[in-house]
TrEMBL record:
Pfam families with a match to the protein in the record: ThiS
Organism: Kribbella yunnanensis
Protein name: MoaD/ThiS family protein
Ranges annotated as spanning the membrane: none
Coiled coil (UniProt feature): none
Length: 92
């Protein structure tokens, strides 16, 4: 079993159109690095800066919990978890 990443439409260009990809890691940061290894470019759309942190207008959830309240990139993940990335959308 692996950790699943639900990919929003705007990021599917990095996953070959796939809605769901899998990866591994003990923390959200390690998981994102692992997924980026298979789908280069996806990490820079989710993470920025030094030290790395989530982009301001990207919401990330692990099992429906907002990671901004569970440790951010240090949030622990394990096999069977589901990670959802929701970029903010603006417009009128």
């Amino acid at each position: 079993m692996a950790i699943e990443l639900r990919v929003p439409t705007i990021l599917r260009t990095f996953t070959g159109g796939e809605k769901l990809v899998t990866g591994a890691g003990e923390t959200l940061a390690a998981f994102i690095d692992n997924v980026d290894g298979s789908h280069p470019g996806i990490k820079e759309r989710i993470v920025e800066g030094e030290p790395e942190e989530l982009r301001r207008f990207v919401n990330v959830y692990v099992n429906d919990e907002d990671v901004r309240f569970t440790g951010g990139l240090a949030t622990g993940v394990k096999d069977g978890d589901v990670v959802v990335v929701l970029p903010a959308v603006a417009g009128g």
